[in-house]
Amino acid sequence: MVENMDALISLCKRRGFVFPGSEIYGGLANAWDYGPLGVELENNIKQLWWKRFVQGRDDVVGVDSALIMNPKVWEASGHIATFNDPLVEDKKTHERFRLDHLLEEHGVAVSGMTFEQMSSKVQELGLKSPAGNELTEPKQFNMMFRTHLGPVEDRDNVVYLRPETAQGQFVDFKIIQEQMRLRLPFGIAQIGKAFRNEITPGNFIFRTREFEQMEIEYFVHPNDWQKWFDFWLDLQKQWCKDVGLPESATKFVEIAESDRAHYSKRSVDTEFVFPFGQKELYGLAYRTDHDLSSHAKLSGKDMSYRDPITNEVFVPHCIEPTWGVNRTVLAVLCSAYEEVDARSGDDGAVHEKEVVLRLPKSLAPIKVAVLPLSKKEPLATKAREIATSLKKNWMCQYDETGSIGKRYRRQDEVGTPYCLTVDFDSLEDQKVTVRDRDTMGQERIGIADLTPYFAGLLGY
Ligand code: ATP
Q1: Helix-strand-coil percent breakdown of the chain, rounded to 5?
Q2: Ligand 1 centroid distance, CA of 264 (Å)
Q3: pTM score above 0.70
């Protein structure tokens, strides 16, 4: 587990996981780009999720809805009216802050406080900005990004970038249920970008204005909501284990009524103990029939469901488990990061510590590194042939530069579970050595057997 965020951020930048976006122009506050290894890690997370919750289940189907939706969607969902954060501004520097965060920093337990109560606390405490200046009156700030559709910027064509993927599932509920002839309980899953104009983004990729969510809207009979809530909580717990988050750092927190989102009757957050504190990683909410009923009301379209056996007609209720892709990347990296005593040796330099990313194999960006002992022919060609053949099934990296110790270390640092070395004996016995990242065990495997061998270890 990483202790120092700077060490992780530096590794991420150095090795092509995550780095500041548009850096040649000085970057843009809290915009991050995912490099060649970061995008593999993200894709592996999304693929694992999709396989588990869509492909692997009879009761969940997928959707990919438009990012910019009819603004009435956000009117019905309540986001235009209530998707607000309390904002204060430093009167001198004009820096803006989340009032709830500022109060927390001053030891005030903001949990359960209304906006009015927070505002009066400012007076009571004579709260100043971190620079010691007067603050403006608190105001509610709507976090949705607004833009205009088409060339004319007027009130009639205001649209919003979606602040959550979920509304796509709600507005498409009826058409998907009919297309796929689905019976309750069933879920609609979506992976996609969401945008929130956060007042104070930060902590690396933890809170950004552009991020990605993996959400399931699971529709149930209102009498069954508790059962399905518990069911999805168990699946979220299992997921945390499977992506390698230590149980000691993963907490499941019941959210008090006053702190719940406007649509939720029960919420349990999965929180993770990051180096900068215990923070929300995932959410689970009982959204009742709030969304379907609101859309039915505003659109005038029927959102009810007829039970084919009992003929009961009702608006389904919804359980929503939600996962942030970027926070998953961060928690997975924090959990996998380990500094060990130097173990690769043989490159002449003295290294006291080396980094090993103990990523679950399924998430590792590179599955197999192919390392010829020497650049000389015919060794290099043989190794390249092996890499080309393995690449049909797995992400492989061919690396012939530097000593073998240095190359092992480079792979350990990015979490590659297997390093395969091709040596001069390989030309004779048609075997290579496979080294395991975690056990450091080495095994001699026939070149012709490599595909079934790795299929056994990595799956396809
Ligand atoms: P927070 O309290 O941290 O602002 P939230 O309760 O508003 O989060 P949800 O609305 O429940 O978050 O969003 C679902 C998930 O989307 C979160 O659990 C998180 O993983 C992710 N998420 C939300 N906001 C951000 C953000 N600004 N940056 C990155 N991920 C985010």
Answers
A1: 35, 30, 35
A2: 15
A3: yes
Nearest C-alpha to atom 15 of ligand 1 is from which residue?
Answer: 324
Is the C-beta atom of 344 inside 6 A of ligand 1? no
Specify whether the CB–CB gap between 139 and 87 falls below 8 A: yes
What are the residues whose beta carbons fall under 8 Å from the beta carbon of 15, sequence distance 6 or more?
Answer: 37, 413, 414
42, 327, 328, 329: which to mutate for ligand 1, most atoms within 8 A of CB? 327
Predicted confidence at residue 259, as pLDDT, reads 87
Pick from 348, 341, 324, 453: which is nearest to 403 by CA?
A: 348
Most distant CA atoms of the chain, gap in Å = 82
Kindly report the average pLDDT of the chain as a whole number.
Answer: 95
Q: How far apart are CA 332 and CA 326, in angstroms?
A: 10
Alpha helix ranges (H) inside 224-352: 225-242, 290-299, 325-336
Residue 349 has pLDDT above 70, yes or no: no
Cα distance between residue 106 and residue 120, in whole Å: 14
Query: What's the pLDDT score for residue 156?
Result: 80
- The token duo for 391 is 């690449």
211 lines ligand 1 (CB under 6 A): yes
Q: How far is the CA of 338 from the centre of ligand 1 (A)?
A: 27
CB atoms within 10 A of CB 444: 11
Write out the DSSP string of 329-393.
HHHHHHHHEEEEE--S--SSS--SEEEEE---TTT-S-SEEEEESSS-TTHHHHHHHHHHHHTTT
Distance, CA of 387 to CA of 396 (rounded, Å): 6
The predicted-structure confidence for 179-191, as pLDDT tens digits, reads as follows 999 999 999 999 9
